[in-house]
Specification:
Layout: E1 11-15, H1 20-32, E2 37-42, E3 62-66, H2 72-81, E4 86-89, H3 96-101, H4 104-126, E5 135-141, H5 166-185, E6 189-194, E7 197-198, H6 207-216, E8 221-224, E9 230-232, E10 234-235, H7 236-249, E11 255-258, E12 263-265, H8 266-280, E13 293-296, H9 311-317, H10 325-338, H11 340-343, H12 349-359
Parallel strand pairs: 1-2, 1-4, 2-3, 4-5, 5-6, 6-11, 7-10, 8-13
Antiparallel strand pairs: 9-12
Helix pairs in contact: 1-7, 2-4, 4-5, 6-8, 8-10
The structure holds nicotinamide-adenine-dinucleotide (NAD) and 2'deoxy-thymidine-5'-diphospho-alpha-D-glucose.
Length: 364
Amino acid sequence: MTQDDTRKARRIIITGGAGFIGSNFVHHWSKNYPEDRIIVLDSLTYAGNRATLKDLENLENFRFVHGDICDRPLVDELLKQENIDTVAHFAAESHVDRSILGPGAFVQTNVVGTFTLLESFRQYWLESAKPEHHRFLHVSTDEVYGSLEPNDPPFSETTPYSPNSPYSASKAGSDHLARAYYHTYGMPTIITNCSNNYGPFHFPEKLLPLMIINILLSKPLPVYGDGQNVRDWLYVKDHCQALDLVIHKGTPGQTYNVGGNNEVKNIDLVHLLCKLMDELAGDLPVKPAESLITFVKDRPGHDRRYAIDASKIRHELGWVPQKTVEQGIRETILWYLENQQWWRPLLSADYQAYYEASYGQKFT
Ligand code: NAD
Ligand code: DAU
């Protein structure tokens, strides 16, 4: 969003701001709106990393709060104390494979946590003097729509919900609550449903960082099933720009689908990544990197295809993604090569235990 003289400074609380997309969004917001007050609320689960925000910690307008979105007294206090007008809600359990291993945390954070934020904000918003400026952005996923057949049209905002994993079911539940708070109470909630993101600060468990790191460590590249599943990839900074537009120009009560129009089969994406790693990563111990590809047991209930029709946000808010998949993956690889001090500590004993439980093979 370009700055204009009439823009009113915001006081924004960003939940999950130490995670992947949340931290990219915090950096985006701080750079573009230095006059705004930014509060990050994050409980620093395995996926949260405060070091990601270290550049911002000393800014006067920035505050990090280590806390849980399910903690109602804390959320009530923060909204009042900081005179918040904008909630950007990213905090979630986000990894499908972990939701298969243990769905409880997903229901707790994604459903109960979102409910807690909505309820707290409702009370606060009702008591506010100028509530027309307020916004509650609920950041969600295309996975709530279920799985597409090869010739189906992409998901639009009117596609019926049909979630298939505990993760997507919990996100669907939270979307329904956010929607209901607009329809029942008139609270200015807006929902975005986005496709697969990639880019800097992505936790190693997700497909692209996992493959980059495993190539650097000469480990097998586990491709689920036949590798023909399709995802619609979007560079995380393009997503942040979309969310910025939605907060500033979106209509309360509306849903906006966000996607890169970049449908790629997993196996083709992994081949592209391997080719770029051979080119960019210097002296790899195993070359070509694609010789590490290993087909493994499929994810239970693995959705076959996701694709987003982003024409609503393009036409109504003028959002157009900037990066092609190849450009974005090149930049992402370079980022992981240059920021090994960020990701190496994340390959902890916990991560290794998760890896073994999920893949049935040791990480070390
Ligand atoms: P992530 O797992 O990288 O980060 C989640 C963050 O939330 C972490 O910092 C974690 O510490 C924090 N958190 C978890 N539980 C919390 C709690 N109870 N209280 C406070 N903080 C808590 O997730 P991400 O990939 O950045 O996803 C962010 C949001 O975007 C999620 O809501 C996700 O559903 C949605 N989304 C993700 C993608 C994607 O491709 N990653 C795509 C579309 C939508
Ligand atoms: O579509 C948006 C969603 O994208 C977000 O809501 C989720 O939070 C995010 O995690 C992501 O979900 P996916 O399950 O699509 O992402 P993941 O990176 O786990 O997997 C991408 C594809 O790659 C998927 O088809 C499964 C496959 N895969 C994944 C891993 C980790 C593999 O083949 N091997 C792997 O080791």
